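[Q] Does anyone have a clean structure-token version of this?
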Amino acid sequence: MKTSTFVKLQLNCPKGCLLLILLFFAGLNVSGQNEYKLFRNYEPFNPDSTGRLYFGFDNVNFFKNNENKLERTADYTITGVMFRPKVVFYPDSRLRVELGGHVLKYNGRDDFAQISPWFNVHFQASNKIAVIVGNINADQEHYLPEQLYNPELFYKGKPEAGLQAKYNSKRFCSDLWIDWQKMILPGDPYKERFAFGVRSNLIIYDKNESSLSFPFTFYGLHEGGTIGTASGLAKSFITITPGLVFKKTTSGKLITDYGANSLFSLSTYPKDNVVFKQANGWGFYASGTINSFVGGLTAAFWHGHLFYTPQGTPIYQNYPGTGTDWLIDHQIIDLKYNYQYKIMKDTYFGFVFDYYYDTLRMKAVNSEGLYLIINFGVSPRKIR
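[A] Here you go.
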């Protein structure tokens, strides 16, 4: 199917989006799911480290260029470094404590963009259940799709902090968390703000190097509180996103795996008759990915109808976040290439290229990112 077909076609329902995707991927033959596998620096839990104290260091070096030609999205380049020195201690085989600092510095600026403490307590209740308080595990953005969570927040956002519970078994895993972004005290002139989510994945079929799974996400952001002096009503932005993922692992040296990924997302937001003139929207996404020893290539399609979530990648939103300039329908073709090279354990170099084409407005944008992610611990020793 030629690109011009996408440009001329305007869809107004999920069924139309589904038909378009089926026809598109029929011409690709292979497809799959793409993830930001680079974006992780949460300390793996090691129950064999009881009584050990050591120094840990997490680091992300980044260069991200966004060439956005759409008037509703920003055109900018960010480059800098995020580093997190910390002391790690295992008082028990089920408990780990981390204490340190988190620093974000942009190149080309004399000031620090962000300096904050880092504190994490990880309780491994069993080999399947973990409870985390303080700064939580936000690796790979909780596996949230870009429409719900902008991957750039991994290195330029404030570290997530609050409460988290994780469950992981052979066929089912779940991640439940609250990220408390702003707390209020009596008389504060602003509202409290926190994000919350549940992301689960059920493996329906897993045989002969093929798997079929059902991911489900409930994710939201709340602004409110009754003890502050900020005016306005409380606001909640919630998305409910079921999906279906197929993956096939091969024994070939060139192609390592391929698969398909689709999801339907319902977004709800507060109706105020000024900006949010109705209370909900929806979006449909489908992608196909081929991974090889030279990187991964993804072709994806997104159709959004009055879709909006505050922390999602801006180009996927029907509302730009300023003024009242809503897009009723929004269609994007996304071509993505990503490459990851493992330098040593938990240390990676990566490159990501995105090409987006707005099929209704016939405009293209692109972005490129270079990343060096370093995680290591040094000088472990027993103190008892």
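[Q] Thanks! Anything notable?
[A] The helical segments are 3-8, 14-26, 153-156.
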